[in-house]
Specification:
363 residues, alpha/beta, 15 helices
Length: 363
């Protein structure tokens, strides 16, 4: 099949392309490279300018690429829209163009609270941690656009046009289940190419190294994690080293993970994201999601991630347990790698996408 993947999020589409290509499909990835991560793509619409001028430049580059977005069996979007939200007519034109000139059009559920009305509504009204949506809204009022009149109207248009919606995790599926969306496909885990991620036994040297990457500090609850990590450093000054850093290219980020024994991913998630999967693949102990809802979504009985709640004391308690029982770290590292190979292997995931696209198996 001929497949077009538009948009990028932490290498999800580029990794999916690897799996699909190795299965014999022709795949094109068109994206802006996911910002500072600068992820490889075939068609580039990353701007050279910054701010508003950069958004305008990126929009022009997408429009210039339109003739290349024809004749595909499958088109999958990473985001509900690719032009600024206020340019509703242009976003609708883009979706209509893709639908008209290709066989099928799918939307990937990978977040976008500020763009996706159904996900935003779930986070606002039913998510176990209501402060999460409140924090996002307080940090940036644009996050509320998806639940505005224009946002709801645009999403209604989009979800009428697409042939299916494929969520990557529990949070991005539940809002669609709540409204009984007829085009909801089974949830498919994040694809990871473990051939490119080196596993090493999780050996502790003089100190246990704990790392948190803060690429999206509000969403990840970095202010909570940072306080917990600093308290742990005071409690175990000779036993731990803490690293809090972010906004690094993917390769540099992976080098930092490689030095660490324990990774704290995020506090507000019942599931887990790409950073957690990469860390597990490298054999690290990960604190983050992995709640029962996540396991049920992936139809697994066990996940090596240690769930944490969005409060300092809970994170401190989990870290203290690991530090005082450091002998569990190497074994948890091995289980983490095995879990990723079983659940997130990019060949297995590529086949799941092929099934969803071609059979349109809706829940």
């Amino acid at each position: 099949m001929k497949i077009l993947l538009i948009g990028e999020y932490s290498s999800v589409h580029s990794t999916l392309k690897e799996g699909l290509t190795e299965l014999g499909h022709e795949v094109v990835v068109a994206s802006a490279g996911d910002g500072y991560r600068n992820i490889a793509r075939d068609i580039d619409f990353a701007p050279k300018l910054k701010g508003k001028f950069g958004a305008i430049e990126s929009s022009f580059r997408i429009l210039e690429a339109l003739p290349k977005f024809k004749g595909f069996d499958i088109v999958q979007l990473m985001n509900p829209f690719f032009f600024p939200a206020r340019l509703n007519k242009l976003n609708k034109y883009f979706i209509t163009f893709l639908k008209k000139h290709n066989q099928t059009l799918f939307l990937l559920g990978a977040g976008s609270i500020d763009q996706d009305s159904y996900i935003a509504d779930y986070y606002k009204k039913k998510y176990p941690y209501p402060e999460y949506y409140i924090n996002l809204l307080n940090a940036n009022k644009k996050n509320g656009w998806s639940l505005s009149y224009d946002g709801i109207k645009y999403n209604s248009f989009l979800h009428e046009k697409i042939d299916g919606y494929i969520p990557l995790m529990y949070e991005y599926a539940q809002g669609y289940r709540d409204i009984s969306y007829k085009k909801l496909c089974p949830t498919i885990p994040i694809p990871i190419n473990t051939n490119k991620i080196e596993y090493n036994d999780n050996i502790i040297n003089s100190r246990i190294i704990i790392f948190h990457g803060f690429s999206r500090p509000i969403e990840k609850g970095t202010f909570i994690i940072k306080e917990a990590m600093e308290n742990i450093k005071k409690k175990y000054p000779n036993d731990v080293e803490i690293i809090i850093d972010g906004h690094m290219p993917l390769q540099e980020y992976q080098k930092t993970i490689n030095k660490a024994n324990v990774i704290i991913d995020q506090t507000y998630s019942l599931s887990y994201g790409v950073n957690a999967v990469i860390s597990m693949a490298m054999g690290k102990v990960v604190l983050g999601g992995g709640y029962p809802e996540c396991l049920r979504e992936f139809d697994v009985d066990y996940c090596p991630i240690i769930p944490i709640q969005p409060n300092v004391k809970d994170i401190e308690n989990k870290l203290s347990y690991i530090i005082e029982n450091r002998n569990i770290i190497p074994e948890l590292g091995k289980r983490s790698r095995t879990y990723v190979e079983n659940v997130h292997d990019y060949h297995k995931i590529a086949k799941k996408f092929i099934n969803a696209w071609t059979q349109k198996k809706f829940k």
